[in-house]
Amino acid sequence: MRAASWSEMDALREGDHGARAKSGRDASIVRAEALTKQVTTPDHVLTIVKHATFEVRAGEAVAILGASGSGKSTLLGLLAGLDVPTSGRVWIADEELFALNEDGRARLRGQMVGFVFQSFQLLPALTALENAMLPLELAGGADAQGRARSTLERVGLGERLGHYPRQLSGGEQQRVAVARAFVTEPRLLFADEPTGNLDSETGEQVIELLFEMNRERGTTLVLVTHDAELAKRCDRRLHIAAGEITHED
Ligand SMILES: Nc1ncnc2c1ncn2[C@@H]1O[C@H](COP(=O)(O)OP(=O)(O)O)[C@@H](O)[C@H]1O
Ligand SMILES: [Mg+2]
């Protein structure tokens, strides 16, 4: 049996995600203004992200590129509100992220943001199905189990629902992490080197999943990557060096 496409899955559900995705295109979905993150070490102040200013439009796929240690993960964590800046501002859609308190940021993330970490970050004591259900349960959504199951089927893990992370390969674990990030149907997906720990074939499958979401649902992608092929497929590339965005192409 062929797996249903994301848009077919949407059509099976209530709501009009397709229409929303289309009408929402071209609106700003992420905006950073003079975003700066410093940490204080015993002997000096280290600036990890310096005055980052840019905008991502709804439906775009944007890559963030830079050498190891250039501040990419820190920048992504700030954009998702997982970390707090020293100064500067971020808007997600119309909401100013750091004008909200931690609960407010968590609510906003739950409503519209998915995050895929390089190191998967699955909960070891939960099965694939339970890991994928978690964001829906936290949000109190209906039919968490059914929705998590169909999302796992979509990423090719319909036969692995009861497996624990240790019983899954790296590629399978990353697909569970992708399913967990997609299960709430976020408008915005951040992924930090999502293929960094995968072999090239498995990495390609994960990339396909991300771009299918982008194409079919208009999910905005902001991807940190070292992968030149992945970067090439994005609409734009932001280059970062020593914490500063140097240029885009
Ligand atoms: N909490 C922290 N305290 C001190 N240094 C940090 C902290 N977080 C990150 N760094 C440093 O900031 C730099 C950028 O880190 P990171 O954002 O992880 O880079 P990248 O993802 O581009 O490899 C690195 O040199 C890292 O060691
Ligand atoms: Mg990193």
Describe the protein in words:
It is a single chain. The chain has 249 residues and is an alpha/beta fold. The protein has a domain at 59-83 and 101-248: Rossmann fold, CATH 3.40.50.300. Helices cover 38% and strands 26% of the residues. It has helices at residues 6-12, 17-24, 72-79, 102-112, 128-139, 144-154, 170-182, 200-217, 228-233; strands spanning 28-40, 45-57, 61-65, 87-92, 95-96, 113-116, 188-192, 220-224, 236-241, 244-248. The strands form two sheets. A six-stranded mixed sheet has the order 6-7-8-3-9-10, with helices on both faces. The radius of gyration is 18 Å and the shape is globular. The N and C termini lie far apart (41 Å). Mean pLDDT is 87; it is low at 12-23.
Give the helix/strand layout:
Elements: H1 6-12, H2 17-24, E1 28-40, E2 45-57, E3 61-65, H3 72-79, E4 87-92, E5 95-96, H4 102-112, E6 113-116, H5 128-139, H6 144-154, H7 170-182, E7 188-192, H8 200-217, E8 220-224, H9 228-233, E9 236-241, E10 244-248
Helix pairs in contact: 5-6, 5-7, 6-7, 7-8
The structure holds adenosine-5'-diphosphate (ADP) and magnesium ion.
The site of magnesium ion has 3 residues, from helix 3.
| Chemical compounds bound to the protein | adenosine-5'-diphosphate, magnesium ion
CATH superfamily of one domain: P-loop containing nucleotide triphosphate hydrolases
Classify the secondary structure makeup into a structural class.
alpha/beta
Distance between the termini: 41 Å
Please count the beta strands (DSSP E, at least 2 residues each).
Answer: 10
Strand content bin: 25-35%
What is the mean predicted local confidence, pLDDT? 87
Would you state the CATH class of one domain? Alpha Beta
Q: Could you give the order of the helices and strands?
A: HHEEEHEEHEHHHEHEHEE
Shape: globular
